[in-house]
Batch of 4 targets.
Target 1
Amino acid sequence: MLLERKFKKVDFTTNRKLFLNEYERKHTMLKLIRRCPEYVSGYREYCQESYDNHVIYFRPTNPKLIDNEWFSRTKDWYDKKETGQIQGQPISFHFWAVDDEKFIGEFQLRTELTPEVMSGIGSIGYSVRVSEQGKEMPPNNLRKSVAESTDFIMFTLNKMRRLFSGSS
């Protein structure tokens, strides 16, 4: 009887909420961000981990090619991919995933759903840094990040539609 009063029973839901609150207090929210120069060194480390661990299902950039000029060299190509200006490439939006200012992985959303895309690479592609795989994350983090990125994607697609239709 004395032990029961000293140690309260806590149900599963309460335990889960306590865990998530503590986790979120210690970690900032996972964010999907546009490619940017500030995270190039994290991207290089991610690519190196993939090469060192012989990842074959998703092969990022060869880390030896990522130098101080890499971002500016590739920016125009990625910008053109988002507006469908690269022949033979589906329109796609490329984001980097960061958590607590650490590069976690990358995420691609392809909005041009051709038969080749749907039977091959699919409409969504993502890869998580090897050293971050298997770590738990509150489920709403990714959902919220994707929703925020979707707002940007919809804005861009609507802007493209207006440009190509001749209205402003």
Note: The longest strand covers residues 102-110.
Target 2
Amino acid sequence: MTNASEQRQVPQQPQAGTQAARRPVDTLKQVLGAESVQAQFRNALGAHKDAFVASLVDLFSGDRQLQECKPADVVAEALRAATLHLPLNKALGFSYIVVFRNATRRPDGSWARVATPTFMLGYKGYIQLAMRTGQYRTINADVVYEGELGRVDKLSGAIAFDGERTGDKVVGYFCHFELLNGFSKTLYMTVEEMARYARRYSPSLGRDVTWEQLAQKANDQTLTRAVGWTGNFNDMAIKTVVRRLLGKYGYLSVEMQTALAKDIEADDPMAARDEALREMEEAKTVDEAQFEEVIDAETGEVITKPKEEEQPQQPQAEQPAQPKPRQRKRAEAEPVQTDLGGNLMTEEEPPY
């Protein structure tokens, strides 16, 4: 009895580093349990909120790179997927949360690499959003093997893949869609074009990675745990042709516009955004700033015609001042001459 009473009187010492040893997944659950966070997921997903939150916890628990990020940042990126009603399951391939190590400046002025979660759409996610609009009759994207590429009409943009496959080598990627109104468009990019595009616009690639090395990934069957261009080049390439084609020629709903804007943020903030904005500008068929409406004076019809360029006015050279002719002043005392009828006579006219 004495030993038992002594054991009850001895207080238990708290274990050192309890807070430091707290698991990242526990912190994530605490953030997800906040009422404000629950309300945002409820507004986005409704009755499917709990299933999505459970899948997020499962994704976070099995990804060591995500565990290096701030849980609040992971939840913020997950909300982007929730607003688009896309799952974050890696096996499905609709959307992902990819970790980039961005350079961040510390308070002391030094720089450090910080794990930053970033929401990214997969090519299946783009196709899913396009199907939801109800404006697409068909949409497809895939790899192109050697021998399959046929005739290419540069004028109309039509590309035929009616050739017979002669091997297993991937030579390019395509995306094709047709709207309900009959409009259709196809985009094709070779492996070399895709590798150069990735080398130029992807911030996740190190400086030591060349486009030649990326091009070899198209036919590399080695399985790795890497993600992105170095881990799954073909899927990233298919996503790129889908995004570029839909962003330039496709019917864009509000959801698709939001997805395109968010996905552009995952690329290089300067180069990729400028490239996407340039493609959107090229998609416009009429530049309103170059046309004006005028009314025909004869028929009263409103006509749209190109604006005439204003010619810059040339500065006129200053002319030297000409001296004014000196006028003869009539003397006050000089009599005024008139004719017989009483009309005033000038000096040039004779009085007769």
Note: The first helix runs from residue 2 to 9.
Target 3
Amino acid sequence: MDILIVAARLLLAAFLGAIIGIEREIKKRAAGFRTHIIVSVGACLIMLIGIDGFEELYGKSWDASRLAGQVISGIKHLGFYNVVEAALGADIVADAESRELVKEGFLTSSCCPAFVSYIEKNFPNLSPHISTNVSPMVAISRYIKQLDETAKIVFIGPCTAKKAEIQLDKAKKYVDVAMTFEELQSLFDSRDIEIAELDEEELDNASYFGRIFARCGGLAEAVAEGIKEHGDTEFELKAVSCDGIEECKIALLKKSKGVLDANFIEGMACVGGCVGGAGCLTHGPRNKIQVDKHGKEAIDRTISETIKDAADSIL
């Protein structure tokens, strides 16, 4: 790779990291200007090394944009009949949770099982305000079971807490197994499946708003969209998005003391959101821009339209 291209990409990474860092310092949050420059440049450097290293090992370039489609193909090589985006379950949750919020007036989110458990154990006075909606995993699994009650459903994602969640009454009759991305990679390795050598398969079940559930702030955006689509113009959403369990603790503590002006608390136990989960293959900082980029591939669809066409996209 040309040294000028490398330098330009590193400078761009530093610039974008600086913007995020400045914003965090203005909001007086931890990890500010300098930290985000270092993290952004480091992540960019690792990616550049990975691209060149891949070409050196396999004799061909690596296109990161093709990887998701190749993983879908790899899953089917393992013997799975079909692959459905968990983000479609997020669309279903966003639609229902936005309705519930308008009705109740105040909610804490229920999509992160670790956040829900944290509230129940440490802030029992707020437990009645936990959304009654199931997580996206359960929502999409329940929907698939309605289409085909004989289906065996395996959830694959970055969240280790899902292994405990599928033991709960609200989940166990819909989800048969929960796996992490690390476990999926182990299955690929055991079958000698080289993902980079497979063809791409398209996965197109969810909307932009369902897909951005994967990062902190995505749920709040999706709920706002749901309220808008339902025509609840008189309801003013005041959302707080908590990035990691420490921010969750602060928001819940303030709300329990009556000093937090918010009617919706989005809690993500992992820093960065679901994409920062312990079951990921890599454990560095995650890029919000990349999540949004994936989401924008479906930007032309509303949540309502996506749910309406859900059966056609699965079958």
Note: The first helix runs from residue 3 to 26.
Target 4
Amino acid sequence: FFASSAINLHFFLGVFLHFITGADTIQSTYNSAMNNHELTVKVHSFMYRQCRSKGYATAVDVLMDIGVLQKDKYEDWRFGHIPYLERVCTINLSKLSTIRHQMRVYAQKAGLKPSFCYYKQWGAKKKGGQGRKPVIPLRFSKYGKPEIEKQYATHFVDAKRVAELRAKQDGDAGSTDNSGT
């Protein structure tokens, strides 16, 4: 009885908050109610899917797949309109820490190779239209701690799957090459 009452109350509050404050609240209410077990299952599932489709998994893609980071907010961050990525995630810092931890756990169990990726701002302007574009690093975390920044910027690569995808791509490219006819 109490469990169903709590679920009904949570749903009612979500609908009520949605009515008062707008569309994003239901998603953030749902995300904040997600427990660590649900997060773990989602992280592992989305990492598996990313590795199967691309050969690697990234933190930002996992966050978008889970639904705690909207694509437009991610793009705003990449263009430098948002000071740090965690600011636009719809769950708290503790849950984000759980996601990063579970990514590392999955990567270790699956034998994925960590690969650091330097995230820089998109669309940086040249000074005076001359010379090279400035490289502006992006910040992921609220406090900018190097270890947390490194965790977000690390991609996990499935070397075997990358080789399979390349072989398939090379095979597809060879079969569409009509230069001999």
Note: Residues 20-30 have pLDDT under 50 and may be disordered.
